[in-house]
């Protein structure tokens, strides 16, 4: 049996080794555990979830260290990921009560009741960029709803998944309720085709579309897709006195997490006459970005991208832009051929034809200069994706125009594209999702509603249409 391995992208250190998971066995365990878990009182499931939160909090530093080692992200950032992982519990409990709780009313003297049921066995396919927080965002609400889980993490971050599963076990989660299967793409495909009742996915549009085609044959199974973005950031009518703040928002939008967030800005759209002064501030800030290993002191802003293969693909993506006629403002520099450290890049693609509408999942930002507001909106919406969009500058009327015209599930004003509230829905349209937003709205896709009319006594007649 082949051995799987994960490495620290910053150093090449081996973090984890193990064998591929047994999908049928994991699904069978989840199916066996389902009846008891689904029938367990909600208060019992909440108690276990809150204990899990306490354990994650107690183990926060070890958890953050592991995420940093397996992803290469700076320690300051992985600490925020662990905090978000713990915070998801209380947010999910509130969301479950609000969006999937029970309701009682009356219709024509008859009691009307709304309740929700779990789907059953749900598969979760997780990404590498936030290997704890993002799958946790599916798992916590799914468990609260009474589902059992088979979780396949990214093959690049298996150790984080095992750590998280161990926290659930320590919290008292019964055997078989959460099952981990490790493996690469073939394991994910096997899980998607297994005896499951639904699949919750975070990852690329390519894989998401393949899942959508596969699940078209099984409309009775829930499919929630959270995919990527080719996100626009418009800078318009800004006060010259605020250019340093504007530059900070641009840099955070484009290069946070080494550009490995689905909400990172990929396209910067600016008014032609205002570009020069803005770019002076942006490039000055880019040149100050520290790229380093997770535990450096001082802490870096960026670590490496996840793996050498990812770095190679990003270099190819930058070369494709240049071959089309893009102009280099800051090159995509790979400082070490053996490790996936990339310095942040900025290319001017104004007037360049034939640029692929794709998500370059790394520290690459493309600048487009436009003459007027209508052209800015057209450029922003010139994508099949629709996850995140942001406007920097302008007044309330301009933002209202931007909000109305934007094709995105997250629309921000004077905030980065990758700023999103955990107590709000998170998702997009087009290639970015299938109208199943996650975060606060995950409660919607982890349970299904059952509407009932109920009476304690039997009383029925047919008053019309019968012979005497």
TrEMBL record:
The active site is at residue 226. The keyword Oxidoreductase applies. The keyword NAD applies. Keywords: Arginine metabolism, NAD, Oxidoreductase. Pfam families: Aldedh. It comes from the Bacteria. Residues 5-444 form the Aldehyde dehydrogenase domain. One of its GO terms (biological process) is L-arginine catabolic process. InterPro entries: Ald_DH/histidinol_DH, Ald_DH_C, Ald_DH_CS_CYS, Ald_DH_CS_GLU, Ald_DH_N, Aldehyde_DH_dom, SuccinylGlu_semiald_DH_AstD. GO terms for molecular function: succinylglutamate-semialdehyde dehydrogenase activity. Belongs to the aldehyde dehydrogenase family. This is N-succinylglutamate 5-semialdehyde dehydrogenase. The gene is astD.
């Amino acid at each position: 049996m082949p051995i799987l391995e994960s490495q620290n992208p910053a150093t090449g250190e081996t973090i984890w080794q193990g064998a591929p998971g047994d999908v049928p066995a994991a699904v069978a365990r989840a199916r066996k555990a389902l009846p008891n878990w689904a029938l367990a009182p909600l208060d019992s499931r909440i108690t276990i979830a809150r204990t899990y939160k306490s354990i994650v909090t107690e183990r926060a530093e070890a958890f953050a260290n592991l995420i940093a080692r397996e992803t290469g992200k700076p320690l300051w950032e992985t600490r925020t990921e662990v905090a978000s992982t713990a915070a998801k519990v209380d947010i999910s409990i509130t969301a479950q009560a609000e969006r999937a709780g029970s309701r009682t009313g009356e219709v024509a003297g008859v009691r009307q009741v709304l309740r929700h049921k779990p789907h059953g066995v749900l598969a979760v396919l997780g990404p590498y960029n936030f290997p704890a927080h993002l799958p946790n965002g599916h798992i916590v609400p799914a468990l609260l709803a009474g589902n059992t889980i088979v979780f396949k993490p990214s093959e690049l971050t298996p150790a984080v998944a095992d750590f998280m599963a161990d926290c659930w076990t320590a919290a008292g989660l019964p055997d078989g309720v959460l099952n981990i299967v490790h493996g690469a793409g073939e394991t994910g495909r096997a899980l998607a085709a297994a005896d499951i009742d639904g699949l919750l996915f975070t990852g690329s549009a390519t894989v998401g579309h393949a899942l959508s085609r596969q699940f078209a044959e099984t409309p009775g199974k829930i499919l929630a897709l959270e995919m990527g973005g080719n996100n626009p950031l418009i800078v318009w009518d800004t006060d010259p006195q605020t250019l340093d703040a504007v530059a900070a928002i641009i840099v955070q939008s484009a290069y946070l997490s080494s550009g490995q967030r689905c909400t990172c800005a990929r396209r910067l759209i600016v008014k032609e006459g205002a570009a020069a002064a803005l770019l002076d501030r942006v490039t000055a800030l880019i040149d100050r970005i520290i790229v380093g290993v997770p535990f450096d002191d001082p802490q870096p802003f960026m670590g490496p991208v996840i793996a050498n293969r990812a770095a190679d693909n990003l270099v190819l993506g930058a070369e494709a832009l240049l071959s089309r006629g893009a102009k280099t403002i800051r090159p995509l520099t790979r400082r070490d051929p053996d490790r996936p450290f990339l310095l942040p890049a900025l290319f001017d693609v104004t007037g360049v034809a034939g640029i692929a509408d794709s998500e370059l999942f790394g520290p690459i930002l493309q600048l487009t200069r436009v003459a007027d507001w209508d052209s800015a909106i057209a450029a922003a919406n010139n994508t099949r994706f629709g996850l995140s969009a942001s406007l920097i500058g302008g007044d309330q009327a301009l933002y209202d125009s931007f909000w109305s015209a934007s094709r995105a599930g997250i629309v921000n004003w004077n905030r980065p594209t990758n700023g999103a509230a955990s107590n709000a829905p998170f998702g997009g349209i087009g290639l970015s999702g299938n109208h199943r937003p996650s975060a606060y709205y995950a409660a919607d896709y982890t349970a299904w509603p059952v509407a009932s009319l109920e009476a304690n006594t039997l009383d029925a007649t047919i008053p019309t249409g019968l012979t005497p």
